[in-house]
Design a protein that fits this description.
Blueprint (H helix, E strand, L loop, with lengths): L1 H10 L6 E5 L3 H4 L4 H13 L5 E5 L5 H4 L5 H8 L3 E4 L4 H10 L6 H8 L4 H4 L1 E8 L2 E8 L2 H7 L3 H12 L4 H12 L1 H14 L2
Parallel strand pairs: 1-2
Antiparallel strand pairs: 3-4, 4-5
Length: 197
């Protein structure tokens, strides 16, 4: 897979934008395999020349910039122009800041520590750092999209069970959204009836 990604990134025309998105990046970042390390480090250092980007998603900052982070992980962190910081485990975040007091200023720490759980708030709060400039945002998505992207075990099993029954993805997501977010779905339905011509 890594060879395929590298070939697509470096051998395809440079006028085409490319992005390699690695979810659960800690699995790759923690690897002792030198090929994996070279893949990450080389990708983060050179992708921009090829109109490309590497995006690595992981649970915590420690995976990239902690004491036990690999050389490749630290290279990925230091060569990333864009950093998106979501809600962190409070205890781990505070320990990280004790060891890295210059990474976040007092205001940034306070705001990050105050990010609510996305599951409870129905939005994701995040800090965006681009070339040293910081801004704060909320990502709000509709209940059907939340049903689609949910990684909750019960939601996943509901989708799988309904697929096995032969229901369409659209029907399943609508049913799950109705079940989990009835008030929002009712509000959306009222908007739909008022906007039809």
């Amino acid at each position: 897979m890594m060879i395929f990604i590298e070939q697509r990134m470096y051998l395809s025309p440079r006028d085409i934008k490319k992005a390699a998105i690695i979810d659960e990046g800690w699995k790759l970042l923690d690897s002792d395999n030198s090929f994996v390390g070279n893949f990450i480090e080389g990708g983060y250092r050179t992708a921009r020349k090829y109109r490309g980007a590497y995006i690595t998603i992981s649970q915590g900052i420690e995976d990239f910039d902690g004491d036990a982070a690999s050389v490749a992980a630290k290279a990925a962190w230091s060569n990333s122009s864009f950093k998106i910081i979501l809600r962190q485990n409070l205890e781990a975040f505070r320990k990280y800041n004790q060891r890295n007091p210059d990474q976040f200023n007092v205001l940034e720490r306070t705001v990050i520590e105050g990010f609510p759980s996305a599951k409870d708030a129905h939005f994701s709060a995040f800090m965006l750092r681009v070339a040293g400039q910081v801004s704060y945002h909320r990502l709000l998505i509709d209940p059907i999209s939340r049903s689609l992207f949910s990684t909750d075990g019960k939601d996943y099993q509901f989708r799988e069970n309904e697929l096995a029954k032969g229901r369409s993805s659209q029907e399943i997501l609508y049913a799950l959204a109705q079940q989990k977010f009835p008030a929002e779905m009712e509000k959306l339905a009222s908007w739909q009836t008022t906007t039809r011509h």
